[in-house]
């Protein structure tokens, strides 16, 4: 079949009915796959995308590759690419699921890659928005209010398509992304797009709280009261939803409505079993995620160090017993 490269770049090919091969995707031992993986791990998504595009044009459909390509297109084009990305994901989850490899454990691969995609889009967006970078200015100028509204509608369609996902963390991650996008949309509605980086750097107070929104600080500036073990930080829409469910459970038990309480228990337990603090407190991990992404090439060689290496073991012991000495020592 094949596709013109321009239809790859705008992601419109994903809305077509794609051919289903007997063994879709790429072998992890394929040299091209390994090169693409290494480029992505090093943060060179543009370089990876240059290799992925001709593969997609040749009907090589792999969930691990196409999600890297989504991020590369977002980093290049910004907010304008959100609607095509969501539309592509909706098609992959739906009509074109069988066309994408790896065939073995496809649903698990799909959940893992979507979890990564939604989380990375959120981390990148929040970082550039809150820092007010020139990249954010370029991304913001790439989209108008109507086009952004279409992106949000498409994101909601993806959320509905994922309604039956066996991995609740995927829906939670998308929910956190959608909460942030809806906040961006409000700045567009009131004409305050240029204030986004300022307006969105405030904490979202927990529902029912009288506390006023507070500035979201980097990890090293989090408002921490060591004496009482309390910390003030931003929470996501997913966390507010969890609070509402816990309160609903308490009310149902209080009124003796145990059949309905059991339904809430099943839902809450699913969330707790897959609890990911990055979903519920995304701002808290934003600096960590951004720094890791920017310096992964320098960190990766040490990350894989042998745990039995004496030097590594001594560092681990120091890290566990005296964090300040670990930071400041030679």
Report on this structure.
This protein has 17 helices and two strands. It has three domains: 1-201, no CATH class; 208-286, no CATH class; 295-330, no CATH class. Residues 192-222 and 224-229 have low confidence and may be disordered. The protein has 330 residues and is mainly alpha-helical. The chain has a two-stranded antiparallel sheet with strand order 1-2.
List the main descriptive attributes of the protein structure presented here.
330 residues; mainly alpha; 3 domains; two-stranded antiparallel sheet; 2% strand
What's the arrangement of secondary structure elements?
Elements: H1 5-9, H2 31-41, H3 45-57, H4 63-77, H5 82-93, H6 106-131, H7 134-141, H8 145-161, H9 168-189, H10 196-199, E1 223-225, E2 230-232, H11 237-254, H12 258-273, H13 277-280, H14 282-294, H15 296-303, H16 310-321, H17 323-328
Antiparallel strand pairs: 1-2
Task: Give a short summary of the structure.
The chain has helices at residues 5-9, 31-41, 45-57, 63-77, 82-93, 106-131, 134-141, 145-161, 168-189, 196-199, 237-254, 258-273, 277-280, 282-294, 296-303, 310-321, 323-328, and strands at 223-225, 230-232. With 330 residues, it is mainly α. The protein folds into three domains: 1-201, no CATH class; 208-286, no CATH class; 295-330, no CATH class.
Q: Which strand order do you get reading across the main beta sheet? A: 1-2
Average pLDDT level: 81
Helix-strand sequence: HHHHHHHHHHEEHHHHHHH
What sort of overall outline do the alpha carbons produce when their principal axes are compared?
globular
Number of helices: 17
Query: Percent range for helical residues?
Result: 55-70%
Determine the structural class based on helices, strands and strand pairing: mainly alpha
**Topology, number of strands:** 2
Low-confidence stretches: 192-222, 224-229
Radius of gyration, whole Å: 22 Å
